[in-house]
Design brief:
69% helix; 65 residues; mainly alpha
């Protein structure tokens, strides 16, 4: 799992560097979220959820017949 750390807000910066800092924060946040999503998609579905998924798939197939 990846962790994204926040910026240091204690220093005052110009508007340009603030915009640049915001873009950097958003970029790091996006990278962290993509890494988290990747980790989640690589995990197997828990057994108790697999039962519900199978049931929903069966109902969907029955409805399409």
């Amino acid at each position: 799992m990846q962790f994204v750390f926040g910026a240091d807000w204690s220093s005052s910066k110009s508007r340009f560097s603030s915009t640049s800092m915001n873009a950097n924060i958003l970029s790091n946040l996006g990278l962290g979220l993509r890494g988290l999503y990747q980790d989640l998609t690589e995990e197997p579905v828990p057994d108790f959820l697999a039962l519900f998924i199978r049931e929903l798939e069966d109902r969907e197939q029955s409805a399409n017949r």
